[in-house]
Structure formats: C-alpha cells, structure tokens
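Hey,

Quick one before I head out. I ran the complex with NAP overnight. Inputs first:
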Amino acid sequence: MTAAETDAPRSVLITGASQGIGEAIARHFVALGDKVAVVSRSGRGPEGTLAIAGDVSDTESVDAAFTQAEDAHGPVEVVVANAGITRDQLLMRMSDEEFDDVLQTNLGGAFRLARRASKGMIRLRRGRIVLISSVIGMYGGPGQVNYAAAKAGLVGVARSITRELGKRSITANVVAPGFIDTDMTRALPEAQQQTYLGAIPAARFGDPDDVAGVVEFLASDAAGYVSGAIIPVDGGLGMGH
Ligand code: NAP
C-alpha cells in the first residue's frame, strides 16, 4: 500500500529514527509521499518528518508522542518499533539494571507502541505493525542475554498481535537485521566485527537501506497477507534459525 496506490498519504510513526536504521526507514516513507512522525529521546529526525521527543521506555511519553503524531497527520496506519539499545555484559556480571533497561526499551517499548497504535488501527480497520528485532534474538550472542531476550520476545508479541487482530486487517511482523553498519555496530571491537564478517555468506555488512526496503514492503499492499513472519535481513548470517 503506497501513498500513490491509495491516493492518500499514510500516517506513519517510527521510533528511534534520529539515526541509523530508523532514519533510513523514515527516509523511505517520506520518499513514498507518506506523512512521517519520528520519535526519539533527542527529538531529531530526517528532513520531511515531524520529529518528536519521546522515550519508548515510558508509557506517558509514548502516548503523548503518539497523540502529537495523530493530531498532525491523522490516525496512524503504519507503526515501526525500531528504537533499541544495547548494554552488553557477560552473564555473570550483568546487573539487574542492565537487563531491565534493555528489556524496557527494546521489548517494553515495542509493546507500548503497539498497544497505543492498536486503538486507532482497530477503528480504521487496517494497520501495519513492524517490529525491528535482530538476528541475535534467534542466534544468541555472548554478552547479550538481555538484548537477545528482548529481541526474541518481539516474535511472541508480533505473533500474539497477529492472532488477536488479524481479522481486522492488521498485520504484525518482525524484521530481523543481521550486522548493519550503524553507530550501534561501529561501537563493537574491531576483532568482533571481523568475526561476524567472516560468518556472513554475503561477505559484507548490511546497509540501513537494506532494512528499510523490507519494512517498506511489509507496509505495502503486496504484503497484506503476510503476518506473524520473521523476515531476516542479514546476508544469510542467521540461516537455519
Ligand atoms: P542506533 O544507531 O543506536 O539508533 C538507535 C535509535 O534508537 C536512535 O534513534 C535513538 O535515538 C533511539 N532510542 C534509543 N533509546 C530510545 C528510547 N528509550 N526512546 C526513544 N528512542 C530511543 O541503532 P541502529 O543500529 O540504527 O538500530 C536500530 C534498531 O535495529 C534497534 O532496535 C537495534 O536493536 C536493531 N538492530 C540493529 C542492528 C545493527 O547491526 N545495527 C542489527 C540488528 C538489529 P535517541 O538516542 O535520540 O533516543
């Protein structure tokens, strides 16, 4: 479903679009002619978007940002839960805070967003919910018990939404990027980056636009019968999971 096909720009909301993958996703929807709101703590966003300051780990903040997007652009038809953080630490040293912070942002943030979005989507009788997970959710990662748990949890969220709201023409899907070249991965030690590179059949790191194209597809008419799916965008890194 593109703006051109429906003759009306869609109201789209993306979290964590101040940089990296989220920013690329936002740029793609702006290029389609949609009305795009982006939410991040810094309140930054790419040109052509309504940039809103908000924190996905806080319910009131999510609800306020969502209302601001609706007031400006109308009922949100496409929502992308992309905001994410890492707090890597070996299991035996991981604090409760490091575990909880990552769960609250990556998993709780997606829950809060989907819950708030569902109200308008049920009324609209259509909607697209896309949750940005990670290959790590299925593959696991040393030092990433918190992150892997949160990213795997998104699968349960999308599949439960699919069973709950599928009959209302609302889809919920998971996109699982592999190693994408952003600030998040540039922060990894060089040796770890090279280990990942060696394990990627495509023999290259992904680009944020690789992920954005798949999100664009999931929000399109062509994907109307795709729901509860996990779509890897990882150059083959996670094959078999
Ligand atoms: P990034 O460059 O670190 O960007 C993260 C974004 O999330 C920023 O816009 C950040 O903006 C926002 N954010 C963080 N905490 C937030 C909060 N509490 N509330 C609202 N916004 C928040 O990360 P990225 O690499 O683009 O990753 C984007 C998503 O893809 C994440 O969910 C990540 O787990 C997932 N992913 C990334 C890779 C990869 O290789 N890069 C692979 C698999 C999955 P502010 O700091 O301004 O809030």
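The chain has nine helices and seven strands.

Talk tomorrow,
K.
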